[in-house]
Here is the input.
Amino acid sequence: MEEAVMKPTKKGGGRLCCICNLRRAALKRPKTLEQICRECFYEVFEEEIHQVIVDNQLFKPGERIAIGASGGKDSTVLACVLAELNRRHNYGLDLFLLSVDEGITGYRDDSLETVKRNEVQYGLPLKIVSYKDLYGWTMDEIVKMIGLKNNCTFCGVFRRQALDRGASLLKVDKVATGHNADDIAETVLLNILRGDIARLSRCTSIVTGEDGPIPRCKPFKYTYEKEIVMYAYFKRLDYFSTECIYSPNAYRGFAREFIKDLERIRPRAILDIIKSGEDFRISTSTKMPEQGTCERCGYISSQKWCKACVLLEGLNRGLPKMGIGRSSRGLNNDPKKDKDMKQSNGTKSIENKQCGSLDF
Amino acid sequence: MACDSSTCQSNSGCYKREEEPISSKSSDSSQQSLCVKCKVNEPVSGTSDDGRFCRECFRSNLYGKFKLAVTSNAMITPSDNLLVAFSGGSSSRVVLQFVHEMQQHARKNFDASKDRSLPVFGVGVAFIDESAYHSVPSYEIDKAIEEIRSIISNLDPPAKQLHVVPIENVFSLDSLDGRERLKTLVDSISDATGKEDLLLYLRMLALQKVASENGYNRLVLGLCTSRIACHVITATVKGQGYSLPADIQYVDARWEIPVVLPLRDCLAPELNMLCHLDGLKTLEFSNGPCSGINGLVSSFVKLLQGENPSRECTIVRTAGKLTPFHFNRIPELNDSNVPLATRRRQKRFNLKPSESISSASFCPLCFSPLSKSDLLSLSNIESCQNYDILDAACCSSCRFQIFPKDPSSVEHFLSVLPQPLLARAKNCSNGNYSSRRKQILDCLLSESEDET
Amino acid sequence: MQLTLEFGGGLELLCESVKIHKVNVDPPNGTEKFIMKDLLTWVRTNLIKERPEMFMKGDSVRPGVLVLVNDCDWELSGQLDTTLEDKDVVVFISTLHGG
Here is the structure.
C-alpha cells in the first residue's frame, strides 16, 4: 500500500534529493528548506522524532503508553511512527490506542471506524471510552438539551477527563498525543492574546501533567503539520478528516490563519514561536492552582467538585448553564474557578479552538 | 473587581474590560448623551472609547496616562535634559506636546516657588532623516524639515533645539560616503524583514549618538500600546521571547542614554484623535508599507483589535508580566546634587532587585540581551575564522535575518557595518568568551578600522 | 488536456464530497501553456460548490493547503507557475482539518 502511483516526471525541474542525490525530490522541508525525496523524507522524519523522544526522555523501557487516537491525521501518523520506532529502536514499550467516543453521529462514529482499522494495521490494542458510559450522556443528547452554544465547553471538559479515565483503565504510564509544532505555536500566540501567563508558561512543555494522574507528552512538538500530512499522504495512511458537525467552520481561528500565512513567508517562524515560548522569562512564583481531588468522582480538581461533575450536575438537574461562564450558580462559589471557566468557555471567535480532535 | 470597566484605561491588571466588551458597550451607549466623567459636556465620537468622554475629559484622561507613566517610573527629574525623538507621526507629536506641557507646568512652579530649588528640565527634539534609504525627493524632505521647524518654534518658550540627523550619521563624519555605505549595508541583507529591522536598530543608534553628543540624559520615544502590541507579536514570531521584556517596559536603560516610553498605555486611535481635536500637525512620509513579518503582524493585530477593542492592551499586559531585566528602570541616583525627594521617589517605584536577573551579554546588532541558548552556541564555536565571532555573538534572530549566510559575503558585511555595532561585539566579551576569542575580535576590529 | 484532480484532508467537502475528479481543461485563449494559476481559477469556478475561501486566498490556495503535482510538492515546481501537461495528477490536501 505504500506503492504510490509514480509517474516518471517530465517536468523541467525534477531536481534530485539533496540527501541521497539519487532520487527525484518530492518535497521541500519547511524546517530546513531542503529538497528531498520520499524515501529520505521518511527516514529524516522518523529519526527526528526518535531524537526528540531520546533527548527529552519521553519513554522508559517497559512502559505502557497510550496514544490518544482520534482517527485524524496527527494521531494516525503518531500511531504509525511510534509503532515503527518502538520496533526499530527497541524502546520496549507496550503501545495502545485510546479513543474517546463523544457520541456524535455522523462524525465520531465514522472516525472511530478509522481508529478500528488502525488497530489492525499497526497491531495496537484499542480501547474506546465513551461519554455515554462515563457520564450517561452522549454529545448528541447534550446538544439536544443545551443547543449549539457552549457545547464545545462540555465536550472539551469531558474529553480531557475521559482520556485520563481511559488511560487509567489501560493502566498506562503515559499518554502520547499528536499535538504538532503548528498547534503549539498557535497555543503560544493564543495565550499571549488572552493574557494567560500561567498557561503561556506551561504550553510549550513537551511533558505535562506530571503532577496529575497520568502525564502526557507530545512527541510531535517540533514536527511541522505540513510534514505530518505529507507523510500520511505518501504512505497512504488511512485517516479521517471531517470537521465536527457541531462546530463546523469554527475549527481554526485567526491565530491559525496567521500561522499559516507566516509559514508561507518564513517557515522557521513556527519553530521560532515555540522557542520564544520556551524562553519567556516567567517568574516561577506564578501561582498554580492547588490540586486536590473532586469530592464526587475523585478526579483531580482544584475545587470541591471537578469541572466535569459541575457540568454533569447541571445537565442532570436540567440547568445546563451551571458551570458555564461567570454566572455559575451554586456548588463552587469561588471567583478563581469562575475565571477558569471563562477561559475554557471559548465563545469568542479568536479563541475558537479546533474541536473534534484530542484537544486538551 | 478593582476598577470600573467603563473608566478603566490602564492596562495594569484590569481584566474586566476584556471579558465583557459587548455588554459594557451596549449598556453605556444607550444612555450616552453626556461625558461619563464630567457629566456636563457632550462626548466626542470617533475615539477608541466610543465617545464616552467629552473633548476636555478625553484630553485630560490621555494626559493623565502619560503623567502616571512619567511619575510612577521616575522618568523625568528636574535636573534632566530630555531628547524627544520626533518622526512626525501622531504618537511622537503627542509625546512632544505632553512633554512640553509638563515643562510649562514645571516652569510655572519654578517661577512661583521661593527658593527655586528644583530646576526645570530641558527638552530638545531630534528628527532622523532616513531619506538616504527611503529615496524621498530632497524637496520633500526639505519641506518636511521646514514644517518640523515651525512646529517646534511655535511651542511656547523655553525654546527647544531641533537636531536634524541624517541616519547615515551612524557611520563616520563624512556623510557623503555614509549615504552610499548605508545603502550598501541595507542592500546586502536579503531578508525583507531583516532590512527593516536593521534600519530600526540604526535609527536607535543615531538617536543615541545625537543624545550623547549634545548632553541629553533621557531619550523619549512616542511608542504607544498599539505599536508595542505589534512588537510583542513580532518578537515572539522571530524567536526573541527571551529578550522581549527588555523592549516593552516604561524604561529601558540598557543604552548609554536611557530610553523612556511615556505613551506605553495610550492607543494609536486615541493619539490620532488628540492630534485631530487639538489641531496638532503631523507629517506623513511615503516610506512604503511594512513588508515581510512586520507587515503581516501589524495587519494581524489590526484584525484582532477590530474584533475586540481591548486586544492590544491585553497583549501588552501579557508581555508586561514577563520578568523585566535589571536595566528596565532608571539607574539609581546616588548623586548628592539630586534632591532627596527625587531620590526617595525613585526608590519607591524602582523594581525590586530580586525580580531581575542580570544579563551581561547583548546581541551586537539588535542589542537585545542574549539567552542561555544563544550564549551556548557562542561558546560552542571552535573555529577561529574572523566572522564566526560576530556571527555567534548575534542573537539567533539577527543571525537568521540580518547576518549574511554566505561566508564569502561576511567580510563585505563587516566592512560596511557602523563602528559602534562592531564595538558592541567587543564589549560583550566580558563573560562567556575565552580570551582567545577576545583576541580574534580585537583583530577583527582593527582590520575593519583599517578599511574605513 | 485531461487532468486528474484529487481533493483530500476535508477539501472534498467543498466539492460535493467527491474526492477524485477527472477533468478536461484547455489553456486560456491566446496561450499555449496551462499553468497551476489557470487550474486554480478553473477549479474555483467549476468544482468548488461552497466556501471557496476555504480553498483559495487571493489568487493562490489558502495557506495550509498542500498541493502536489504528480506526487511532487508544488513548492519544488514553481507553485502557481507550474506548467501542467496532459494526464497530470494534481492533489490538494488541507492540513486544517482534524487532529
